[in-house]
């Protein structure tokens, strides 16, 4: 069981616990921000993580220490978890209001400015969105409020294009965002895969291929953002490394033979502690 | 592909001359073209927590944050309209 399900989910899936979307949690965040993080704890956390990443190239001998610190800050302030499309749909039913916004990671890594409803790839959940709407010049151009139905269509649209849905906390366990991520644009995926900073933890599911059904068409291989899927040439089937799988379900949706199933991580003894 | 931070890859010396590169978010050639997504955009200028006009010189800075991922393909050096980027590996493969 993942640590957040234990501490914030009463033993069940923590992001399905409506308490983690509650207004009160958003308020709690302020008290949590300790003296060194100042008035913008998420921003400060992002800076600490970025400093660690930069140290990997500038002063490698400092990196292990800074990485340890970044790990800790990330878990406290801005942790993410990969969710399947179905779970993301449950999340938008729990949270209110829902608003679409431009992705901050893509602005940093690719200079991409998402400023219209078609290009938005990030979703903000909860009470904080009123603030973003009220002062658009302060909050990266403001947001676009949507209904639950529109949010589901939006999730499906990006999921079909091959993006990974992952939740984001703003002061764990307050769930304040649902992002559509890919490698290398998304900083959370990047930091996890390339720098070992656990800003993004794995999802509750893992993908398993049914070799009897798999036709070896290779459609799923190109969709995996985590490099978990390989084409096994000798048997002409897809092979999924379940230790690398993050359980986003992007491969499952695209499989024409319906050969991939998402299995609960907790049912596999070797994987249930791998997050 | 386990993460290994003791990986002894050569890491280049990369510099972005902020005197020459003043409006990175308007140009963003290096950001878009780097195959390893080495560069990151930092917002420098906030006025009362508000980001400024993207065309204002000096409001944003591009830094090679993921420089340990650089392969030395020199695409960014070729593409930069202001010749602001230098990449140098230890062997002396200069710009």
Order of helices and strands of chain A: HHHHEHEHEHEHEEHEEEEHE
Radius of gyration of CA atoms of chain A, rounded to a whole number = 19 Å
Rounded radius of gyration of chain B (Å): 15 Å
Mean pLDDT of chain B: 83
The 3D shape of chain A can be described as globular
Kindly name the structural category of chain B: alpha+beta
Helix content of chain A: 25-40%
| Individual helix count of chain A | 10
**Mean pLDDT over the residues of chain A:** 88
Could you explain how this protein is built, in words?
The complex is a heterodimer of chains A (275) and B (95). Chain A contains 10 helices and 11 strands. With 275 residues, chain A is an alpha+beta fold. A 7-stranded mixed beta sheet of chain A has the order 4-2-3-6-5-1-7, sandwiched between helices. In chain A, strand 9 and strand 10 form a beta hairpin. Chain A is globular and about 55 Å long. The relative contact order of chain A is 0.14. Chain B has helices spanning 24-27, 29-33, 75-79, and strands spanning 13-16, 40-43, 46-47, 50-51, 60-63, 85-88. In chain B, the strands form 3 sheets. A two-stranded antiparallel sheet of chain B has the order 1-6. In chain B, strands 2-5 form a two-stranded antiparallel sheet. Chain B is globular and about 45 Å long. Helix content of chain B is 15%, strand content 21%. Chain B has 3 helices and 6 strands. With 95 residues, chain B is α+β, with helices and mostly antiparallel strands. Classes of the chains: A alpha+beta (275), B alpha+beta (95). The A-B interface holds A 50, 53-54, 56-58, 60, 63-64, 67, 107-111, 113, 137-138, 140, 184-185, 190, 193-196, 227, 244 and B 1, 3, 5, 11, 14, 24-25, 28, 31-32, 36-37, 39-42, 49-51, 54, 63-69.
């Amino acid at each position: 069981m993942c640590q957040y399900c234990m501490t914030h989910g009463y033993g069940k899936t923590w992001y399905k616990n409506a308490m983690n979307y509650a207004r009160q949690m958003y308020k709690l965040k302020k008290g949590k921000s300790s003296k060194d993080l100042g008035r913008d704890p998420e921003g400060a956390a992002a800076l600490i993580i970025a400093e660690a990443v930069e140290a990997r190239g500038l002063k490698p001998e400092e990196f292990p220490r800074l990485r340890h610190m970044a790990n800790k800050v990330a878990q406290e302030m801005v942790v993410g978890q990969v969710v399947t499309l179905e779970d993301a749909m449950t999340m938008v039913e729990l949270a209110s209001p829902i608003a679409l916004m431009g992705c901050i990671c893509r602005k940093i890594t690719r200079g991409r400015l998402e400023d219209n409803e078609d290009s938005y790839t990030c979703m903000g959940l909860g009470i904080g969105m009123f603030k973003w709407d009220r002062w658009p010049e302060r909050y990266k151009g403001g947001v676009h409020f949507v209904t639950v139905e529109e949010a589901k269509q939006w999730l499906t649209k990006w999921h079909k294009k091959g993006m990974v849905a992952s939740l984001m906390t703003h002061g764990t366990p307050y769930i304040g965002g649902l992002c559509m991520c890919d490698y290398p644009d998304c900083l959370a995926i990047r930091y996890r895969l390339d720098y070992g900073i656990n800003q993004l933890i794995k999802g509750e599911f893992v993908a398993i291929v049914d070799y009897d059904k798999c036709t070896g068409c290779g459609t799923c291989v190109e969709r995996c953002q985590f490099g978990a899927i390989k084409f096994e040439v000798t048997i002409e089937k897809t092979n999924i490394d379940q230790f690398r799988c993050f359980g986003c379900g992007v491969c499952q949706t695209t499989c024409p033979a319906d050969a991939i199933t998402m299995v609960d991580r907790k049912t596999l003894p070797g994987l249930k502690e791998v997050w | 592909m386990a993460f290994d931070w003791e990986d002894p890859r050569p890491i280049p010396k990369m510099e972005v001359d902020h005197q020459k590169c003043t409006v990175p978010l308007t140009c963003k050639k290096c950001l878009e073209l780097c195959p390893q997504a080495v560069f990151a955009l930092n917002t420098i200028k906030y006025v009362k927590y508000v980001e400024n006009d993207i065309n204002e010189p000096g409001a944003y800075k591009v830094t090679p944050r993921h420089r340990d991922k650089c392969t030395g393909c020199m695409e960014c050096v070729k593409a930069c309209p202001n010749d602001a980027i230098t990449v140098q590996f230890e062997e002396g493969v200069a710009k």
